[in-house]
Amino acid sequence: MRKGIIQITLAVALxxxxxxxxxxxxxxxxxxxxYCGADFSLFHSEFRCQQPFVAMILCVVFxxxxxxxxxxxxxxxxxxxxxxxxxLPTSGRAQR
Length: 96
Prior knowledge:
Elements: H1 2-36, H2 47-87
Helix pairs in contact: 1-2
């Protein structure tokens, strides 16, 4: 159960980083559009013209990792709850 909580916490953090990267995509594209003439490339000689693609790659990577960790966290929480229910006695009396 603790493992699932840690995974969901990390998933939330990764999704926040992914959202920040998405904002970076729009910001860097807006700032570099005049400088680069809207010609962005990952292999451009100026780093300012590479930033939108770098930010887009980071957004996708962190977003996918966040979704994967969230799914694993939910799975581990469900398995932990099922395991805890199996350990509880089924009757009202304590079993010896």
